[in-house]
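>> Question from a student workshop board

For tomorrow's exercise we were told to take the sequence and the ligand below, predict the bound structure, and bring the output to class. My setup keeps failing. Could a helper post the expected result so I can at least see what it should look like? The ligand is copper (II) ion.
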Amino acid sequence: MASVSVPRTAAGILRRPTATTGVWSWFTTVDHKKIGIMYGVAAFAFFLIGGLEALLIRAQLAGPELSVVNADQYNQLFTMHGVTMIFLFVMPMAAAFFNYLIPLQIGARDVAFPRLNAFSFWVFLLGGLFLYSSWFLGGAPNGGWFGYAPNSTTDPSVGMSFYALGLLITGIASAASAVNLAVTVINMRAPGMSLFRVPIFTWMGLVVQFLLVFSLPIITVALFQLLFDRRWDTAFFDPTRGGDPILWQHMFWLFGHPEVYILILPAFGIISEILPVFSRKPLFGYQFVVFSGIAIGFIGFGVWAHHMYAAGLGPVANTAFGISTAIIAVPTGVKIFNWMATMYGGDLRFRSPMLYVVGAIMMFVIGGLSGVMHSVVPSDYQQTDTYFIVAHFHYVIFGGGVFAFFAGLVFWWPKVFGRMLSERLAKIQFWIMLVGFNLTFGPMHVLGMQGMIRRSFTYPEALGLTFWNQMATVGSYLIAVAVLVFIANVVITQRKPKGLDDEDPWDARSLEWTTSSPPPEHNFDEIPTVHALDEFWHRKYVEDERGRVVRVPAGAAPDHDPARGGGSGHAIHLPSPSFWPLVAAIGLPVMGYGVLYSWWVLALGALVTVVGLYGWALEPSVAEEA
Amino acid sequence: MERTETRPVGPQTAPPRPSHGPHPSAKEYVRIGVVLAVLTALEVATYYVDVSRAILIPTLFVLAVLKFLLVVLWFMHLRFDDRRYARFFVMGLAGAATLYLIVLLLFGAFSG
Amino acid sequence: MKSKARWTRSWPLALVLAALALSACSDPNLPQNTFAPAGPVARKQADLFWPVFWVAVGVFLVVEGGIVWMAIRFRHRRDRDRFPAQIHGNSRLEVGWTILPAVVIAVIMVPTVSLIWDLARPAGAGALNVTAEGHQWWWGFRYTDEDMRTSYDQPIVTADVLVIPVGRDVSLSLESAGGLIGGGPEQADYAVIHSFWVPRLAGKQDVVPGRTNRLVLRADEPGTYWGQCAEFCGLQHAQMRFRVVALPQAEWERWVANQKRPAVTPTDPEARRGMDLFLNGVSGGGQCIACHAVGGTEAASPAGPNLTHFADPTHECFAGCIWETSDRAALEEWLRNPTQAKLGSKMPDYNLTEDEIDALVAYLYSLT
Amino acid sequence: MAAVEHAVEHETTTGLPNTKLAMWLFLASECLLFGALISAYVLYRGADPLDGPTPADVFDIPYTSVSAFVLLASSLTMVLALSAAQRDDAVRMRLWLLTTAMLGMIFVGGQVYEFTTFYNEGLTVDVNLFGTTFYVLTGFHGVHVTVGILMLLSLVGMSLAGRLPADAAFPVEMVGLYWHFVDIVWIVIFTVVYLIPTGTAG
Ligand code: HEA
Ligand code: HEA
Ligand code: CUA
Ligand SMILES: [Cu+2]
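>> Workshop helper replied:
Here is what the output should look like for this input. Compare the format with yours to find the bug.
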């Protein structure tokens, strides 16, 4: 335990928080594991909300010319659905995994900047709540998740201002956490962990942080421009004063495409981490998989205009971006084939994480292939802005991303909570979700090619789209059932007594499994020394001369500490809890309201943030002992 | 061959290094400052002479780049510091330059 | 595991079903089916779609088939508790499956690039020039050729329906119109991005304010082709539909001749009363002519749909093609409360009396 | 293991201090931020405004040149502060930091004056694209300078209160990196916005 006792008063006004348990401790914690859990819980809550919005969308589209919701409500629903799922679910859920796992996987005690980490979380959460407060303050954003100007700048409702401000706020969270995690991976690795011994999940995390560092500033500027156009009547995107709406599209997609790899690379990391465990083989071509991840990130910056084929950029641009887009299939293919090679000849144990992982690969490939069909520019003229696109990106994001997230959840659940989720329920959930998912999004390919545009709150019967829409709606409610099964699984599991029968339930490979479950606050009693990729596995097994694997006799492994988390680790000084990150974060949404309503509120918010930052700067990261 | 090393090797941690390389002396800083001032004066001078855009713009561009480099390499001591800092910064700089140049080209911003 | 085996046996069945589904795809009775092309542009696009699709199916079968096969072949068996061979990688294989997809991509990109350039070619001489104007939320069409001017020296203008001759290239200039309606922010017709799409004739082209994009299309057979705005453009984006009516040469000429004439002056007293209301204002003081043009009368505003030949049979539908023009009840409902009938529509509600509505409908139906 | 963990700054994997690495990453990110703002200005520069003043109408190059000199000078004083800090000369360090902050304030003050003048000459953010892009670009820069001033003053304050860490040169160096970055951004802005004439400016 961090040996923190009576604190010094910070800034002389407020007592330094000390509690590491209890409700209050969650507000002041700087522990990456607690922050990771909070990220996960908040992201999952937003997933339920975004999913609820999706269910309403599907209810409205269950038949021609229904009026479950009206046009106005529908536009808000799909915009908030997209924004929620992307910015408030997938990104923070990835952040949850990164936060929890990266320090454990690299053998560190925490991230590089623990308080900045807490700040990131609070900013994200408050930014999300700020966005959602728009429902009660005149209407939610209604211009689509990519908010094309000038529709987004001219729309008379307040929604798109919330969109700009909300995404600016959550962007600050992502930027701060990106720098933080990047420095963590670069700088905080355990002794012996060279770059090519870094677990693959952490590697993909590093690539994602770089994508964020370089793409977020672009959307930041774009959102400011959008906001200024709306709020102070600037002319960035106003064609009547010479502004060019295409500028917004370039700016948005310059960010937006790297963003989709920001969404999928964490999933690739999870897949690459779990697949070897249940194949009982090392990841095939680890280095190739690492490099392909880097290549995807790099090429991902050079394809943005594939969202603008129909915007009239001309044949030169369309040719260039068509080709660059198709090229992404190559490094992605490397990953797929290396995964297949990992499975090949393995001893595949289909426990629940493996089911999700294999499902994720199979579903992602479908989405990836439709992605390549989009890169065929002339056919994309037909596909763009139809349900074919909707099908594409749900196959990659839900099929690839969300399935992988569920894999990660069941796989690391025992690590995080010290209890096994029910295998049976997890498998039931998987099959319902797989069927529901394909029933929902498979038909959308057909719908798109048969002329159903996206963002359409209704469709006439004469278009002949009713049947497949009904299938999609049925499917979406099946997904909801699957999600409910997951929730039930969690509830049931949390009622079981804490403790694992087997501290290493999956026969895992990476460093986070060398510590207790859940890990102690200081993660490792002793910082491990790393000798190999898949360090933990190598502590359990060696390959004999003939390449066969034999188990290392218990206790004989070097550095293997059988007494896990046994309450030693006294004099380890961990960063102490602090509420300044929360204070500094609270100022930001206040400033957001200020932009919309009054300069005074803006100034108040700025003041709160500045006070928070000063408190933070003046407080030592580790409280002194009395 | 991608066989993973199983033999233990020594700690990877680099020996503690000073957080910054040798710094120029105050005198050298002042010298750089003077050069910067002169370059700026030259820039401003172009405003008063009448030259064609074809000469003016490259001249200004070169002067600005020189100033930029002087500040980055000396004042921000990238020249003396660990190479890895420079690598990060150049990633951002080159990335920004490339991406935005492409965007401006797509708008035909330089053809008019 | 048993259930998995059953799955594999049902594969051929699945394939047959898939083939059936695919053949049902090209059903021309679905009015916006891209698989039932009716013009050269859409046909070229579909012809490029299918080979790429089959390549994708090939990759799909290799990858997914491979995974399913491995899932069965290498699944854990209870009687086995030994480790499989620990293979860490194989550079040659990996380079191989880097290059192979690259080759496939290269092959796909050849016809792709050539069609990009093919479709980018401007229309040849003899094409019909039309400017399509996107409004919030309806389409207007202006025929800009010299020989398409009316007897009252205006270009022919239609709303909701683009009428074209069969077999002739139509060169469309796409413009975002808007900003013509006054009133508060709720009322204004903003110039925003739309996208012009007639699935059976051609893929989309965006309509971007401040620019003029072009699209060339042609219909090979007479008929009605449905289209719709495909870029989200605000509240009623979903109901910004339109149609393209392709007429055989003789009918086309008759249509043009009719369009060139000014609107007919009705003789029926009810319709005359409607005309009077239309031109001189309704009881609440509303002025239809503030927004609508009726050729040959003083109504000449380009802000709303042009109503000169509202009842011409080619004008099949109105108000963003939500309703058939022949649907009298719908037209009445529209006039009764346009902002309710089509939520947020930019046409104001003038609280017309039933009596006025009857008169106006009679007038509108007289405008053949 | 009884090592005191919070002295992590000097025992990182790469040997590079976390904060400095983070600072350079942040600055790399800022390159894309200002790049976007400058690109927007370049994209719209010289577009004939339908309304309102053009750059040629409002710019006062001698005035802005003085500002540019001031900001450059502040970079020099900043390194002198660092130099003093490295020599453990706290007094000189504070002095130079204060000078730097002062110069920064002169710059920002000059910008406020410039904005007011332009405003009075009819250049507002909404009058034309020049106003829009000019104010937003230089305004963002001005906000960065202001934040820098706050950090400089905080350093001075903390130094006076004895709350700087033993290695005081380190935070000074970090703030310095930020400050110089803001300066090089101005080098670019000064050239691109003020000195390169637009079509209409001749
Ligand atoms: C997780 C997110 C994610 C991912 C990973 C991808 C991956 C890809 N996407 Fe997708 N995309 C989105 C999310 C994503 N996309 C979203 C959200 C949108 C819509 C935005 C909006 O409009 O709202 C979109 C839209 C979109 C468009 C614009 C369509 C339009 O609006 O007109 C295009 C166009 O080219 C495209 C292409 C691709 C390609 C080529 C890939 C590739 O990376 C896929 C590569 C993978 C494979 C190809 C499969 C595996 C490879 C092999 C097995 C090797 C062999 C293969 C071949 C030889 C072909 N995507
Ligand atoms: C991560 C990304 C992500 C995810 C996971 C999803 C998940 C889903 N999406 Fe979404 N989607 C997007 C990203 C995503 N989507 C984006 C970016 C857009 C574009 C938006 C735009 O055009 O701007 C979009 C658009 C979009 C559309 C098109 C709307 C339109 O264009 O008009 C549709 C239509 O069916 C749809 C459906 C669904 C469905 C049915 C799910 C389902 O899979 C959801 C499953 C989840 C649940 C069903 C939740 C379970 C909830 C419960 C069980 C209730 C319990 C509740 C409590 C306890 C409180 N999505
Ligand atoms: Cu117009 Cu959508
Ligand atoms: Cu993309």
